[in-house]
Each structure stands twice: as C-alpha cells, then as structure tokens.
Amino acid sequence: MAREIIVLGAGIVGVSVAWYLARRGHRVTLVDRRPPGSETSFGNAGIIQREAVQPYPFPRDLATLLRVLPNRQVDIRYRPGGMLRAAIPLLQYWRNSSPRRYRDIVPEYASLIALSLDAHASMIEAAGADALVRREGWLEVFRTRAALEARLEEARANEARFGVRHRALDSADLADMEPSLAEGLAGAVHWLDPWTVADPGGLVQAYARAFEAEGGRVLEAEVSELSRDPAGWRVSAGGESLLASDVVMAMGPWSRQWLAKLGTLVPLFVKRGYHMHYGSVGQARLKHWVMDAEVGYLLAPMRAGIRLTTGAELERLEAPAHHRQLAAAEEKARQLYPLGERLDPAPWKGARPCTPDMKPVIGPVEGQQGLWCALGHGHQGFTLGPATGRLLAQMMDGETPEIDMRPFRVDRF
C-alpha cells in the first residue's frame, strides 16, 4: 500500500532512498536546505568503489602513529579541538580497528559493497546518465616496490574472498597506460570492477530528476522541526508543515543532532576533506583516476578539470576550512603529474559522516515507529547510496532484505 514518506537529506544516500521508494509507488517528499548533490556528494572522488571491501581502520601500528603525529601528512591531519570533541567515538573507532574486531567487520561491510554496481546501474539507466559513467576501473599507484607488493598481496586475497578483480601493472605497464605520469614509479594496481563518474554532483542531480519523474517531490528548504504526534511524523520546512507515516533520516553528519532531539544517540564523527580543480600543462593528459597510494591523495579527470582530493581531516563539522593539507597534496601531486593552474576560486570542503565501527546505520529506530536511518557511510557514501536505498526500501515494505541487515542496525552502539 502506498504511503506518505519524507526523506530528509538530498545527498546521494537520501536521493537513492527516495528514488527506490518512489519506484515502489510511495508518495515521497525529499527535503534539503540545498539542491540535490550539493554537499559531500558533490565533492567526492567520483568512484563507485566495488573493490572497497575493507573499510578504513584507525591506524594502530607504532610506525603509522609516529608518522601521523607531527600532523604534516597528506592522508590524515587532525585538530586537537576536533579530536577532543569526538574523543569517545574515536576511542571506539580505535578499539574496533583491532585485528579481532576488524576481522569480523570486513565481511559485513563487504556484503554492502557487493551490491553497489547493480544498485547504481538501475538508477543510471532510469536517469539516462550513462554518459557520466566510465567502466574502466582506476589506478592505485605506488612509488616503492615493497608497498606495491604488499598491496598486491591484499588484492589477491580480496579477489579470492570477495571476487574483486584487479591487474598488476609494473613500471612499463603503468607508463603505457598513463604516459604523462612521472618516471620511476614502481607500478600500480589496476582495479578492474569500479566505475568512475566525471561529475559526481551531476550524477546525483540526474538521479533526483529521475526521482521526480517517478512522481516524487523535491523541497529545497531548511528543516526547522521534526516531531511525532498521533497523526504521524510532522516536518516543518520552509514555511510548510508536512505530515507522513514514515521519515527517513539521511542528513549525513547533521543527522546526529536531529536524532539526539528524539532521544536516539548515534556516535557520528566527521572526517573532512578538500578538493581543487586544475588544468594540465602542455599536452599532458590524465586518462584514469589515479591515487598516489603512499602519499594519500587522488587525481581524477573530471568535467571541471583534474580534481585533486585530499585524505581525511579530523576536525569539528562546522570549523573553518584549513587549507594546508590541500597545499601539501598539491605539492606532491605536481611531482607526479604536470598540473596547471587552479581553476576554482576557492578550495571545496566537505565532511564524511563516520561511525566507530566503520559501518553505516541503516534501518528502523527502535521505539520510534516510522522513523528510519540511512547515514554514517564514511568514505563510501557515493558508492553505497543506491545499495542503501534499495535495501531500506525492502525493509520499509516489510520484505526480507537481500543481505543480513543486523550488522547495520541503529541500536548496535
């Protein structure tokens, strides 16, 4: 039976949830203060990472901790105030990254990743967005042979266990595929399964248009109130009062404060990230998405130029931008590829909503009938948005989801 449903948050996760629900015949209103795909979904690396079966653990080895401690790295930076604010979830994150706990988390996380391409494919077809998508994989480039061999060993294990395909590239193979990269690199892992997207924000916008074509409504307005009364869930936004039987919380890092008002505590913290677009010097051309694995940034040939994305910054959600991490990444990137001038007036900043056990929160809120969560996807919101939408729609319609959803329940913390 068709129901009135409100989805809060128009990033890739919220748009995907809304589309899958509308596809099933429900009357869905998608609410966000900004147009679809304007926050973190706009600024990511643009990879649907089918190979990412292992979430990013908290570093526990002494060598990595000593490397990170001076706070000058490209892959991770931190602000003491931000770490203090998130001290409890960060401590839980550290504990969950122990070998024993992490070993149990990986197959649960991988079960979601395995659905990513198929769930995106349905939405890409409906949105007519195939021109934005390339199915050629991406390159994880290494400067030293030892690091390359270690990564290839992991890749072989993941291929045997999770069906993730890859190809090993030596220095000559890499030079053939990307002749504009610097000489002297050890080689790369060519991940064969992932898809790349030349305009991530544009893809989310195309998905939103497909949602509207299914009869859904997009309301661009700030949410001012969320409450439940005997008639259902009430949402006040932009001067309108909306009523629905169900509400889906998909507001990324902003979900925590709204859930807390309803008495549900989800220990979210953020990893912020930055990007900038560049031209290329002379005849240089970047053909594939390229990660400089031992440094910790990525170069992506987007429609807007070569996008340089940084690693993670542990800082408060609303703290001012800090641009030194991007500057450090740019310095290293210019050694790898002949970047031209900056094309954007200012660096972009976004925030990834993360959980202490590295798994998203998907499912009903216990004791709050009709309230559902779809949040906490960390580094893989762009990859997992459509899979989350499909699974949550199955749950909301009372069906048995295609994978075990107990590891992602709201009350697990």
UniProtKB/TrEMBL annotation:
Signal sequence region: none
The keyword Oxidoreductase is assigned to this record: yes
One of the record's GO molecular function terms: oxidoreductase activity
Listed Pfam families: DAO
InterPro entries, alphabetized: FAD-dep_OxRdtase (IPR006076), FAD/NAD-bd_sf (IPR036188)
Family matches, as SUPFAM superfamilies: FAD-linked reductases, C-terminal domain, FAD/NAD(P)-binding domain
Residue ranges occupied by any FAD dependent oxidoreductase domain in the UniProt entry: 5-395
Keyword terms of this UniProt record: Membrane, Oxidoreductase, Transmembrane, Transmembrane helix
GO cellular component terms, semicolon-separated: cytoplasm
Membrane spanning residue stretches: 5-22
PANTHER family assigned to the protein according to its UniProt record, in alphabetical order: GLYCINE OXIDASE (PTHR13847:SF289), SARCOSINE DEHYDROGENASE-RELATED (PTHR13847)
Protein name, per record: FAD-binding oxidoreductase
Organism listed in the record: Halomonas nitroreducens
Organism lineage string: Bacteria, Pseudomonadati, Pseudomonadota, Gammaproteobacteria, Oceanospirillales
